[in-house]
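Predict structure. Chain length: 248.
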Amino acid sequence: MQLTELKAAKVRMEVDWTDKTDAYNIETECISLKNDSPLILWKLGATRFPAEQSTPSSYEHYTRESLTQAETAKQRSINLRNTLGAIYKNSIKDLREQATRVDIALADKIKLTEEVCYQLEKELLRCLHELANTEKAIDELRHSTRGLDCAMKVAQTRLANRLQRRNVESCRDTPQFALVEEVRMLNERTSAMLAELKRAEETQAGLVKARGDLEREIIVKRKTLYIDRDRGQRMRSFYPSAVALSGF
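Prediction complete.
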């Protein structure tokens, strides 16, 4: 709409300027005419007053109106361009401020993710250490259980051999009771050892699951870091400056 108004004012000024240029040239020619000028001729009807002729007041009114209209259109255009320029500058400022806020938020997110990843890796190392200790304890328990089994076999073999004594020699003597007590104690220790071994194996299974969960979470965090830091942050480093956003 502003362009249309400016073009209309321009056309009106051009037409008026052309008319005034032509009139100026005619008036200049009239001033130069003398009694001995070769261009003077009889002109019939030269004294008539055409109906479309303007009066000095209408001439002045039309000229002032054209100038006022052109000046008004020009001032509106200036105001519009100033308004658009302010809006454009504010938009660029808002874009840069938003980009800065995004960069700060992204940097904070990357820092937090790095810290979480570090803690997860630290926890994974602790989990692996505990898993190694648990596996070592399981091996020791199994070795101890085999040792108890061998001791149980010895005690039971002794009891079985002593049951082969005949007649009065098959006596419930002190060694007999001691061997029975030894079998009972070995049985209790073996049961306790097996229960401890079961708990250790359950702990091992839990640590293995925790290790898998930690490894998967670390992979996810590293993937997030790759996207945010190595791709997103690097790509945002090419975000245009305020000068570039202004078109310069």
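Summary: The chain is about 85% helix and 0% strand.
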